[in-house]
Design a protein that fits this description.
The complex is a heterodimer.
Chain A: E1 3-12, E2 19-29, E3 34-39, H1 45-53, E4 59-65, E5 68-70, H2 76-81, E6 82-85, H3 99-109, H4 115-125, H5 142-154, E7 160-164, H6 172-189, E8 192-197, H7 200-206, E9 209-214, E10 217-223, H8 224-229, H9 235-243, H10 249-254
Parallel strand pairs in A: 3-8, 3-9, 6-7, 7-8
Antiparallel strand pairs in A: 1-2, 1-4, 4-5, 9-10
Chain B: H1 3-7, E1 13-24, E2 27-39, E3 43-47, H2 54-61, E4 70-72, E5 75-78, E6 81-82, H3 88-97, E7 99-102, H4 106-109, H5 116-126, H6 132-145, H7 151-155, H8 164-176, E8 182-186, H9 194-211, E9 214-219, H10 222-228, E10 231-236, E11 239-245, H11 255-263
Parallel strand pairs in B: 3-9, 3-10, 7-8, 8-9
Antiparallel strand pairs in B: 1-2, 1-4, 1-5, 5-6, 10-11
Helix pairs in contact in B: 5-6, 5-8, 6-8, 8-9
The chains are: A alpha/beta, B alpha/beta.
Chain lengths: ~260, ~290
């Protein structure tokens, strides 16, 4: 197992104000697998990802990545293994750093050396090419920025890529390009991917397996093949499936809250 | 939609050769380049990617394009009345009362230091001579009409105390309380979860059919617009490249529309590379 999560719990706030964002989630992702984590806002899907990546250090349970048990604080070596791409490429790149400097930083932190060749290679890998190397983020389109963010994650040659809504800030034509890029990179580098999204169609396109979350709990795990057939068992998943098919007056009427 | 449509054949809105331009260091940049359409009492969807000019088209109808942007048109008329030459005072009467607009994010569109109930009541009092008690009664009715379960309780809440979906319903209540003839909704549901989005659309749908209201629905979501609207305009680089009945979107002719449709991942399709849109410079002039 590449990622193994047992009974993960995350809560925010104290006493009466405490909110349990993740409430006993257990799941595992095989090496080389692409796993989708689906849910509506507040379902806890991003919080699970942030706990795995080490961005959230206040959790209980067990998280193991590549067979190594992880504590709240991560060693530097962990980030060589596991990298993350965020939703908003307008917010996740330093506005005053060139692409070159953005990509050189992780190489310097990990003391990898040979920065020049690595940056050149990774830029080609994400389909940008050397012409983009000395540009600033404001000189790039949203799709190009997201490619830089992916390049920054890949420059360390990680084995696991965590993706938090990587295409939801992009236009659909650009989304298609990024999804194709992620599929190619996964095949070429044998990456394990965890993709957090609210978009079931994106999961169907990129993942092998998925888990549906609602209010901090894992509602259902299924294969993408089952998703494609609409073979969900839980009423919440079925509702999510119906909602993603487009507007229908009668369907909208049938929606209810699932606790 | 109902009898009001058949008895009232005059178009609600006429737009002909609408242009919106912004001065830049390198000359005028045109965001909207000659858009024409007429709108009856129907739901018209305007679809396009970012920068296609869809939002600017919606805003220019209410003359809300910020300076130094310049709006010109051969004709921009609401119920036969020219909006481009209307006085600022006349526009204030039209905005809200006759044409209302719902923006994308309720977080930035509601007044954070005023309870939502008072904001809705204020929207009513600005456009009618009603007293405070009457306005409150109408505001509570309106909150119930957008299916807020406990209107009395929500009335006294501040915007930060309500969820995104509820905030958007409050916005819609506020826009609809003066009973406008035309609603311009700019991505009204993009910030919402899919299930809440469906519920908000159902409310808008009912209000359109019950009141015989016209609606312009600006969105980037092709499937949503196709399933919700009656008619669709597809915009690219400031122009309408194609217009069709919503039900005929799958049979769209323009390569841009077809490319957009093809690039959408679909739940029931096997994984694999998606066709990528290659933009033809000729589309800019088409």
């Amino acid at each position: 197992m590449m990622i193994d999560i047992q009974d993960l719990r995350v809560s925010f706030g104290d006493g009466a104000d405490a909110v349990t964002a993740v409430d006993g989630v257990t799941l595992s992702v095989r090496e080389g697998e692409s796993f989708g984590l689906v849910g509506e806002s507040g379902s806890g899907k991003s919080t699970v990802l942030r706990a795995v990546s080490g961005l959230n250090d206040d959790w209980t349970g067990r998280i193991a990545v590549a067979g190594t048990e992880q504590g709240p604080k991560r060693q530097k070596g962990f980030y060589k293994l596991c990298q993350m791409v965020f939703q908003d490429p307008y917010g996740s790149l330093h506005p005053r750093h060139t692409v070159d400097r953005i990509l050189a930083e992780p190489i310097a932190i990990h003391g990898l050396g040979d920065a020049d060749a690595r940056i050149d290679r990774v830029l080609r890998d994400v389909g940008l090419g050397p012409a983009f190397r000395f540009r600033y983020p404001h000189q790039l389109s949203g799709g190009q920025r997201q490619r830089v963010a992916i390049a920054r994650a890949l420059v360390l040659e990680p084995r696991v890529l965590l993706l938090d809504e990587p295409t939801s800030a992009l236009d659909v034509s650009v989304q298609a390009e990024i999804l194709n890029l992620l599929r190619r990179l996964r095949a070429e580098h044998g990456l394990t991917m965890v993709l957090v999204t609210h978009n079931l169609a994106v999961v169907a396109n990129l993942c092998d397996r998925l888990a549906v979350m609602n209010r901090g709990r894992l509602v259902e795990e299924m294969t993408v093949e089952e998703l494609r057939r609409g073979a969900a068992r839980e009423p919440y998943t079925l509702q999510l499936l119906r909602a993603s098919l487009g507007y229908d007056r009668a369907t909208a009427e049938s929606f209810r809250d699932y606790a | 939609m109902t009898d009001r449509k058949t008895t009232d054949n005059a178009p609600l809105l006429e737009v002909s050769n609408l242009r919106v331009a912004f001065p830049t260091r390198t000359g005028m940049a045109e965001a909207v380049r000659g858009v024409s359409f007429t709108l009856g009492r129907e739901k018209l969807g305007i679809v396009g990617e970012s920068g296609s000019g869809k939002s600017m088209t919606g805003r220019s109808i209410l003359r809300l394009v910020p300076p130094p942007g310049r709006v010109t048109a051969d004709r921009l008329a609401f119920n036969g009345e020219d909006l481009l030459t209307a006085s600022a005072k006349r526009m204030r009467d039209i905005r809200g009362r006759r044409i209302a607009m719902v923006m994308q994010d309720p977080k930035y569109s509601l007044n954070p230091v005023m309870t939502v109930g008072r904001q809705i009541a204020e929207a009513y009092r600005v456009h009618s001579k009603a007293g405070a008690a009457e306005a409150k009664r109408r505001a509570l009715e309106m909150l119930a009409a957008v299916r807020i379960r406990d209107p009395e309780r929500v009335y006294d809440r501040y915007p930060h105390e309500v969820s995104g979906g509820m905030g958007q319903r409050i916005m819609i209540a506020m826009m609809l309380i003066p009973d406008p003839d035309l609603l311009i909704a700019d991505e009204p549901t993009s910030a919402l979860d899919v299930t809440v989005q469906m519920q908000v659309l159902a409310i808008l749908d009912d209000l359109c059919s019950q009141r015989g209201m016209g609606m312009i629905f600006v969105s980037h979501d092709l499937n949503l617009v196709a399933s919700f609207c009656d008619r669709i305009l597809i915009m690219y680089a400031g122009r309408v490249v194609e217009s069709c009945r919503a039900s005929d979107l799958h049979a769209a002719q323009h390569p841009y529309t077809r490319g957009l449709l093809a690039s959408l991942p679909k739940i029931d399709e096997p994984p694999g590379d998606l066709p990528v849109l290659s933009r033809d410079p000729a589309w800019l002039e088409a």
